[in-house]
Specification:
The complex is a heterodimer of chains A (about 325) and B (about 350). Chain A is mainly beta and about 325 residues long. Chain A folds into three domains: about 160 residues, no CATH class; about 50 residues, no CATH class; about 90 residues, OB fold (Dihydrolipoamide Acetyltransferase, E2P). Chain A is built from three helices and 18 strands. The longest helix of chain A has 11 residues. Chain B has two domains: about 130 residues, Thiolase/Chalcone synthase (Peroxisomal Thiolase, Chain A, domain 1), CATH 3.40.47; about 200 residues, Peroxisomal Thiolase, Chain A, domain 1 (3-Layer(aba) Sandwich). In chain B, strands 3-2-4-7-1-8-12-11-9-10 form a ten-stranded mixed beta sheet, with helices on both faces. Chain B has a two-stranded antiparallel sheet with strand order 5-6. In chain B, α4 packs across α11 and α6 crosses α10. The longest helix of chain B has 16 residues. Chain B is globular and about 50 Å long. The chains are: A mainly beta (about 325), B alpha/beta (about 350). β5 of chain A pairs antiparallel with β5 of chain B. Chain A: It comes from Streptomyces acidicola. Chain A: InterPro entries: ChsH2_C, ChsH2_Znr, NA-bd_OB-fold, Thioester_dehydratase-like.
């Protein structure tokens, strides 16, 4: 068995999310250094505020300002901050009930060490220098031994309220393709295409994924297929893909390699686009150092009879 | 819900269960390669073939391994052609089992295959799980799963309901029990270790690993044909709490208690409970919420502290409870699964064997 193949894989999205009226007021407030809560039907003040009462599901819109000072309701000391977290030096995660609120907000507390933190301690907001209308406009909390500050009486009406946030998300993985695909990729680097046969229905899958999707059993018998094959169907691509260095238009086809019971995908070149056809016989073209064929080109053989590939469309 | 008050309702049982050995990494296997042996094991145990299965339901999350539509690849392992009756939940497999149970209740199928799998090794599961949080107020801070559990543990300590030595005791008992579980990733005497996020030490946290599990459900006489002592599902229910952590009393689990009530778990004592408590502090909360006293054998498998393949660990609790009934080691067992941060969502099933 060849070594387990590994490759870095980064999944990264900038999620663009729109805000409801309460979320918009809260996040706009943070931009303006104002913390807003929302009052429920039974008079509780929720911070951070939500659009609907979590108990009754009633729509709630009654915004009320709370103080930037509050009390820690629980905490946890984070010895080694991770990427994206509010501080890059050790800090405490805290739930803070701000003065005037009945519920607690999750954030970070900048404190010298775990021995300086306890439930019930008083803290206040440390504002970020640059604020955009996001939860990170609160840089963190910091210990506070002054008097409680009275909240203002902001109503939640702002000039130029934020209506959305862009939340970048990035996750890093180490991708491994598994046993069957590793074998396939290893053989391909030696310019051989090796599929696997189902022990039950005898079909040969290329590329193999380790299981026969019809029978639900493991495939393991390796079968070299090709190198030649037949175009079973194709399309002409007119839109240039990002990060793909191929001039449009080009032909992309399904190619059933000789001996395979599943067609694979490949680019077809070496022939005018309008002459590519179902049944065309093709062979792979390798470039120096490549781990897979660059494209497929006509072999010059007569076209395959439709009956030989009609089950592979 | 329970069967009470429902006319002509069918009895449904877990008739087979299998799980992989759970390991830190399974890099040499794709997801379907990891999953297939457990699928074959439950089919062999019952003598069923793929084509005999009335309904197939799975649970997994593409975020774990970072592979889009990985559950469709996993379907290769069940032989999904010609097209089968199939569904998937982006949740722990315990919720897939819940869906399969309701499908069998309707009478549309007599047997169901339920499976789930998780490969945490390709990514960083502590960070991956932040992506399930409120995207406006919480996810941008990237609070990882251990940090959130630690906030809950501290609240529990502050409330005087536990302390660090008691939590270490939960960890030690779980890993000692796991010595009898050949599938466990962590068993025996395991050092409790340093703080990961204080007050939780490494030993208070589940091992990170890869694994899969499968269960077969069958209705009525079919269950008796397939298994000498079926584990009858007497009730099953799941409930959820508000997503705002600061809205909840983190020292309690009203959703677990309500699910247990609705599943009929509190009507009579159980002899065994398999609790899905990835963190030691969560076992303390669940014991209280589910009113489990010292007479109950809790997590004889070692629980999620011994092996925690994310998306499968809840289904494994149901499978472990059922397997004890199959073996005659339990007559009435509670199985619990959780989802989300700090026990946000909870499922409870009551399983019984016939004497």
């Amino acid at each position: 068995m060849p070594e387990v193949l590994k490759a870095p894989l980064v999944v990264e999205f900038p999620f663009t999310r729109s805000l409801g009226p309460v979320q918009s007021a809260f996040l706009t407030g943070l931009r303006e250094r104002v913390v807003l809560g929302v009052r429920t039907g039974d008079g509780r003040v929720l911070v951070p505020p939500v659009e609907y009462d979590p108990v009754t599901a009633e729509e709630i819109r009654d915004l009320t300002e709370v103080a930037p000072t509050g009390t820690v309701t629980t905490w946890a000391w984070n010895h080694s901050p991770r990427r994206g977290q509010p501080l890059d030096t050790p800090f405490a995660w805290v739930l803070v009930r701000l003065d005037g609120a009945d519920t607690a907000l999750l954030h970070a507390l900048d404190a010298p060490g775990p021995d300086t933190v306890h439930t019930g301690m008083r803290v206040r907001v440390r504002w970020a220098a640059e604020r955009t209308g996001a939860i990170t406009d609160i840089a963190c909390f910091e210990p506070y031994d002054g008097d409680p500050t009275s909240p203002g009486d902001h109503t939640g009406e702002f000039e130029e309220p934020v209506t959305g946030i862009v939340a970048p998300a990035r996750l890093d993985y180490t991708y491994s393709p598994g046993r069957a695909q590793s074998d396939y990729i290893a053989a391909l680097s030696g310019r051989r295409t090796v599929g696997e046969r189902c022990p039950s229905c005898r079909k040969v899958y290329v590329p193999p994924r380790g299981a026969c999707p019809t029978c639900g059993v493991a495939t393991s018998e390796q079968v070299e297929v090709g190198p030649r094959g037949t175009v079973t169907t194709f399309c002409i691509v007119n839109i240039k893909a990002r990060n793909l260095d191929i001039e449009v238009p080009y032909v992309y086809g399904h190619i059933a390699l000789d001996g395979a019971d599943l067609a694979l995908h490949g680019r077809i070149a070496g022939i005018p686009n309008d002459e590519v056809r179902m049944g065309l016989r093709v062979e792979p073209v390798w470039t120096e150092g490549a781990r897979y064929p660059d494209h497929y080109r006509p072999t010059g053989e007569p076209d395959a009879d439709y009956d030989t590939y009609k089950e592979l469309l | 819900m329970t069967r009470e008050g429902v006319e002509d309702v069918r009895d449904i049982a877990v008739v087979a269960f299998a799980q992989t050995d759970h390991r830190r990494t399974s890099g040499e296997l794709s997801e379907v390669e990891m999953l297939m042996p457990v699928l074959h094991e439950v089919l062999q145990a019952t003598g069923l073939k793929t084509a005999d299965i009335g309904f197939t339901c799975s649970g997994s999350s593409d975020y774990l391994a970072g592979r889009a539509f990985s559950f469709t690849m996993a379907l290769d392992g069940v032989g999904a052609w010609p097209p089968i009756s199939e569904s998937h939940v982006e949740m722990d497999g315990a919720w897939a089992l819940y869906e399969a149970w309701t499908k069998l209740l309707t009478g549309d199928a007599d047997t169901a295959l339920v499976y789930s799998y998780g490969k945490s090794s390709p990514g960083s599961v502590r960070d991956v799980l932040t992506r399930q949080l409120d995207p406006y107020y919480v996810a941008p801070l990237w609070p990882d799963s251990v940090a959130l559990a630690a906030l809950q543990a501290q609240a529990l300590i502050d409330a005087g309901e536990t302390d660090e030595p008691a939590l270490a005791g939960v960890a030690a008992r779980s890993r000692a029990s796991a010595s009898a579980n050949s599938h466990a990733q962590l068993s025996g005497a395991v050092p409790h270790g340093d703080y990961l996020v204080r007050p939780l030490r490494r030993g208070d946290c589940p091992p990170i690993g890869d694994g899969a599990a499968a269960v077969i459900l069958a209705a009525g006489e079919r269950a008796r044909e397939l298994c000498p002592r079926p584990a009858w599902i007497r009730g099953i229910d799941h409930r959820i709490e508000a997503h705002g952590l600061g809205l909840r009393d983190l020292t309690d689990s009203p959703s677990a208690r309500l699910a247990a009530e609705k599943a009929g778990a509190l009507e009579r004592p159980v002899d065994t409970a398999e609790l899905h408590a990835p963190f030691t502090s969560q076992e303390v909360i669940l014991r209280k919420a589910l009113r489990l006293d010292d007479e109950v054998t809790v997590n004889p498998s070692g629980g999620a502290l011994a092996a925690n393949p994310v998306m499968a660990a809840g289904l494994i609790r149901i499978g472990e409870a059922a397997a004890r009934i199959h073996r005659g080691e339990s007559d009435r067992a509670l199985a619990h699964a959780t989802s989300g941060p700090c026990l946000q969502q909870n499922l409870v099933a009551v399983l019984e064997g016939e004497s």
